[in-house]
Inverse folding.
């Protein structure tokens, strides 16, 4: 099962997809649920190019602190540039199974679109539990990729393309079991929310415009024929130009509390 590579090109795509209105509003939904307070210390696991970290910085204020952890050197480089001069932000190289912090460090931990890619979710949840203070909370956001609705003039080709794309995940249905896994890892269930990623149009300011680029690159790396990928892409762009476009996916925001 081959994973996405967040090299310079992959990081460029993440940077682009994080700037569209769809993902900006998604981050706002995450922050409404996390409900940060002044003075809190918060960790972003899989912080990517640093958009969420930068937006959390003023929420905790100068008496608080925001840390980001990522495995990708390219992502960390972008994030550090983005947050240069922000005094209450720091980025660290690390991964969800080995968080580089002492026990009981954080008031809150959040992670967006990361846990469905992890081969060892229980181990990652144990690490989050370890670095949280008693009474602290974790927020995990993920997509139910198996429930994606994407209009196509050739449903069979769309099914083939998405079947390959599914292989970039460890668990495309993680939200269905996440509350159980949180409970088994010692958390009490907290608030939850649904964010619907809905694009009835296609242009550079939509989430699915950039998702197409991710799928193209990944499926090409898995040996899908260029002709198949181009036909799939051209069909979506024709539907967009004709006003017949439709993309929708359900994303879930779940909170657990450490007793």
């Amino acid at each position: 099962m081959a994973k996405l590579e967040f090299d310079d090109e992959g990081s460029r795509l993440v940077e682009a997809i994080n700037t569209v209105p769809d993902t900006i509003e998604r981050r706002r939904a995450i922050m409404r649920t996390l409900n940060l307070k002044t003075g809190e210390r918060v960790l972003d696991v899989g912080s990517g190019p640093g958009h969420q970290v930068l937006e959390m910085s003023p929420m905790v204020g100068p008496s608080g602190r925001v840390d980001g952890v990522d495995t990708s050197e390219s992502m960390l480089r972008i994030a550090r540039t983005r947050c240069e001069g922000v005094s209450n932000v720091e980025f660290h190289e690390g991964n969800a199974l080995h968080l580089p912090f002492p026990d009981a460090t954080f008031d809150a931990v959040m992670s967006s679109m990361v846990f469905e890619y992890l081969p060892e979710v229980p181990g990652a949840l144990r690490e989050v539990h370890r670095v949280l203070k008693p009474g602290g909370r974790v927020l995990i956001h993920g997509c139910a990729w198996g429930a994606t609705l994407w209009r196509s003039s050739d449903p069979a080709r769309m099914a083939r393309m998405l079947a390959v794309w599914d292989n970039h995940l460890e668990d495309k249905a993680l939200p269905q079991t996440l509350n159980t896994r949180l409970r088994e890892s010692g958390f009490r269930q907290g608030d939850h929310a649904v964010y619907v990623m809905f694009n009835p149009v296609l242009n550079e300011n939509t989430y699915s415009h950039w998702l197409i680029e991710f799928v193209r690159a990944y499926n090409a790396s898995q040996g899908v024929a260029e002709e198949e990928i181009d036909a799939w892409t051209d069909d979506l762009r024709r539907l967009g130009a004709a006003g017949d476009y439709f993309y929708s996916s359900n994303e879930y925001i779940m909170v657990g509390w450490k007793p």
Summary: The chain has a mean pLDDT of 95. Residues 99 and 233 are 39 Å apart (CA to CA). The longest strand covers residues 132-143. Residues 226-242 form the longest helix (17 residues).
